Amino acid sequence: MFSADTGLLAAFFLSVSFLHVRDSHFAMLDIPFTFFCVVFYLCIWGVYLNGSWRSYLLTGFVGGIATAFKYFGIVLIIPLFIAGIIASPRSPGNFLTRAFSIKFITTLILFCLVLAITSPYIILDFSSFILDIKEEILLSQYKSGHTLLPQLRTARGWLYHLAFSLRYGMGLLPELICISGVLWSVYRSFKGERQHLLLLSFIVPFYLLLSPQKKPFMRYVTVMLPFLYLSGSRIITDNLSRIGGLKGKIILLLIALAVIAEPLHNLYLHDKLLGRKDSRNLASRWMEKNIPQTAFIILSNPLIFGNPPVFNKYYHRISLSGEETPEDLERLSYLLRSRQAYLIVNDHFLLYSSVNQDAISYLIQLGDLVYSIEAFESSNACRPIYDPFDAYYLPLASYRGVKHAGPNIRIYRFPRSPNS
Fold this sequence. Notes:
By secondary structure, the protein is of the alpha/beta class. 57% of the residues lie in helices and 6% in strands. It is elongated and about 90 Å long. The N and C termini lie far apart (73 Å).
């Protein structure tokens, strides 16, 4: 599609892209989806160049597999359609015959067949498939928003992904260069370089698909990264090709180092923290040694994400709702004075670990602090940056003061010791 230098530079940038490396580590579905979208574009290049049956069929086969990983892959039909329209002049036919050729229709059928074979319950239980599309994608993503955290429902993807997801998933300088690259592709398209339209025919529709989202998880933009880096690399190599020689190579090296500096720095600090024990695992280890399974456990938050994983082994447990009335607290305090119990408090910047501070302050007066683990400095002036939509307790940037993944955890024992 572009020069080898452009491709190698884009691959180099992608290899140290924070979001891509992080999600590759956890083998998120977005990663194989991204892989097959890139392979799809390798195949579609053949459609653009020669329009052969082999290229068309390979494109349909790979596109069906990509969509089986994530249904958003349906967007791949657009670049397939565009490739047929702007195909090399050697391809026969006018606009309409290219757009709706027998090859395109056959490829579309193959696309759907591969999707059905790799996701057989689309056919076996079609009504459930339609219901899932309606509830899990259309209603959840575009209408209802975040049900666990209603405070986040008002967010919209069009600005959030641009100002946050790409900003911290790529880094500020890489994002600016890649956005410039997209604009450069628009400009070159008007100059008659039709291969740029192929690139834009995925980037633009996919971003438009994400734009109305009310649950704009950062990982949703992962699939755009290879194509954005390709755009950014193209604008760099196009302009440096005018300089050439040793001077051009030195400038290219300096630009490349500047581009990878921020994501590489954040990846180093992220992986360093990832190599340490999570605060929730450390708390679990202490609980297993010091709290009998017959004990009564009170969790500070109804959501499970910030709790020590061992909490579900304790059958006598309740969770604070965050909306306790004074009467509720009075009844709970009576219980805590009459039997042995433990309060597990997890506190974090993420709303998944938000607590009713008034209720916690009231209850801890009745017990003794027996364990605490500080995962981060809560008084840290440089607040770490987290993805607010994802229950992922490691920062994206600003790591100062962060010691472990996970929330700060405190454990109180009730009733209070007479000597306290």
